[in-house]
Specification:
Elements lengths: L5 E7 L3 E7 L5 E8 L11 E2 L1 H16 L7 E8 L5 E4 L9 E2 L7 H6 L4 H8 L8 H11 L3 H6 L3 E4 L1 H10 L3 E3 H4 L5 E2 L4 E2 L1 H7 L8 E3 L2 E6 L5 E7 H8 L8 E5 L3 E8 L10 E6 L7 E8 L3 H9 L9 H6 L9 E3 L17 E3 L7 H27 L6 E4 L6 H11 L3 E4 L4 H13 L6 H5 L4 E5 L5 H18 L5
Parallel strand pairs: 1-5, 5-14, 9-12, 15-21, 21-22
Antiparallel strand pairs: 1-2, 2-3, 4-7, 6-8, 10-11, 13-14, 15-16, 16-18, 17-18, 19-20, 22-23
Helix pairs in contact: 9-14, 10-12, 12-13
Length: about 500
Amino acid sequence: MPRPHYVAAIDQGTTSSRCIVFDEAGHIISVAQREHRQIFPKPGWVEHDAAEIWQAVQGVLAEAIGGVEDGRIAALGITNQRETTVLWDRATGRPVCPAIVWQDTRTDTLTRALAEHEGLFKEKAGLPLATYFSGPKIRWLLDEHPGLRERAERGEVLFGTMDSWLLWNLTGRHITDVTNASRTMLMNIHTLAWDDELLAALGVPRAMLPEIRPSAEVYGHTPQGVPVASALGDQQAALFGQTCFAPGETKSTYGSGSFLLMNTGHQPVVSKHGLLTTVGYQIGEGPATYALEGAIAVTGSLVQWLRDNLGLISSAAEIETLAKTVDDNGGCYFVPAFSGLFAPHWRSDARGVIAGLTGFVNKGHIARAVLEATAWQTREVVDAMNADSGLDLTTLRADGGMTADNLLMQTLADVLAVPVIRPMVAETTALGAAYAAGLATGYWPDVDSLRANWHKAAEWRPAIDETAREREYRNWKKAVARTLDWVE
């Protein structure tokens, strides 16, 4: 029988699900993608239908590997939107309520009520108290749906992030990996196990939780016999796909939100500047690699908002063309605090503002301010990361859909005052899941073989002077100050 030629990855994202097939050099062989609905029942609430997502995943999986001969797929990896919370019935396998998406802010009152435990969560989970994480979402669902808590305590209702939901449907096992578990506020980041003190503080029954496994190992097989051999939260998968295997190596992924991760080695670094301590990855039974993370809630989704809610552009790609009709932002700054501000502020009371408007400002200036919002939010996180790690960022490896926007990439280089590099394969999230699955099955021998696959496609260097950079940054910070204390 011929040696399997390819590795496939499911990338279950916030707005769509994809399946990508890669060859040994990390090149894309085939891609299939399907969007799913974004459900907004109330202001600040965001839901998904987990059954609809599973249907979409089955569709893209069949489509992407449909043209590949049987037995030619060596392994299947999974990467997923993190923190999004699914509860399902163990007996029927059906969701018992809509999935609460990571951006959702309905747990705001609940997280404020947990303030006395803030130190505990920071120390044991490496996370601030925020609406972002899965733990408060589980608690909210158990509190709001009569009878659900009792069923969960009996183990009849199961919890999982999207990786668990897909692994359950693909292999029949109720498991998650260390990276996704580290986003729940329920796992002790030092022991890599569910923690009784954290469970008690959040009021979540242990019986509903999945088993925590490494990010790269064979978990089971699909009905077609393909080994399912990795699971990584999307940002950790991008860190892996960018081959950031050494401490200090940093990547930023620009999707619906944006996420900077810096590899900090085998020791967790507790942030003093508003970043998250998270698990980067764990290969088999080896030690876990940790990361510092700066999470920005709204970047690419701001471009979508400009398209769908305001109709200023008819496709996301048009933002660059519109922004290029003007030379600068015309004094206008856009802080997209649609669901509060994430790193480094962690202010759920903030709401979006457009500041500095005058009669001179036109839609071109607003388009430019939208792109600059991504760059300035990145700068805030990089400043925090440099302070926490004691390392200065020297280059930024950027990936994700927004990196196709050359004006944004140049703006990032200008704002950060370091070179910004885009790799040949911009789909590093799916690539990271494929790499981890390939390592687990021996398709790739070691991480050095993965490093050899990494190639630079483009590089942008800073092109503005320090005075202009710092003046604009001061203005941005003034705009951020205007977003605070909006929700009482």
